[in-house]
Amino acid sequence: MDYYKILGIEKSATDADIKKAYRKLARKYHPDLNPNDKEAEKKFKEINEANEVLSSTENRKKYDAYGENWKHADAYQNTGQQGYQRPPNPNSSSSSHGGSPFEGGYSDFFESMFNAGSGSRGRSTKFRGQDYNAELTLDIKDAYTTHKQTLTVNGKNIRITVPAGVKNGQIIKIPGHGGEGVNGGPNGDLHIQFSIQNNTKFKLDGDDLYKTVDLDIYKALLGAEITVDTFDGKVKLKVAPETQNGTKVKLKGKGFPLYKKEGSFGDLYITYNIVLPTKLTDKEKELFTELSKLRTL
Prior knowledge:
Blueprint: H1 3-7, H2 15-29, H3 38-54, H4 57-66, H5 73-80, H6 106-114, H7 120-124, E1 132-139, H8 140-143, E2 147-153, E3 156-162, E4 171-174, E5 190-197, E6 203-205, E7 208-216, H9 217-222, E8 224-230, E9 233-239, E10 248-251, E11 268-275, H10 282-296
Helix pairs in contact: 2-3
């Protein structure tokens, strides 16, 4: 497979280009959106494999140099130090065998290293499986509590526990759920990056939440007891008399849960927005006029 073609990008693509192309295709061919579609499932697997290789600077260099046999680059380099010439990359337009002992290309070389006829050293060489990368989109309300999620990675369902307080862009590692090892080597790992969607009135910054609450002029001037929404319910809050526009109050422990620190939370900051009355009646105008005169005395 040509990983660049699979993602629809050029070999000169930047890391940002790779990430953008992967996200677009992964959403399009995700099994949850294409149930019972074998072709979509196959495409999704190829997309993940391509992204796994090209999104890693080290793996991408190996792939550009050794093509489909990039996983064995380290073994080749060790062998190359003993006098072998480098085999050409069949994906490169400038490759040429040039009389080297690798006239059969990559397959002949790796057959000589890893097949039964290559000797005990080749048979005993073990390679760790490649790591997989996946992206999981969560609503911020789901990220607020510890819960279970089932992911489909390369056609396999993996059930994981998502700890409360996971953040946007955070990556967690699931050991042993990557690619299978070679010659009995250990499996790779699964790296899951979280994308947190926030469609609430709360702004999340670190572990603290921020929210703006409208307050009418009468409550602001005279003081009052109001009810405000927090992330996990309503609370009563006392408004001090003569509260000014933009005043901030802190509700300790009413913020976002701290990652893997059960029972610990950030704070909630409330900012008051004073709302002036509109469409005043004649009587209200008269009273406000009287008030204005009192303030000038």
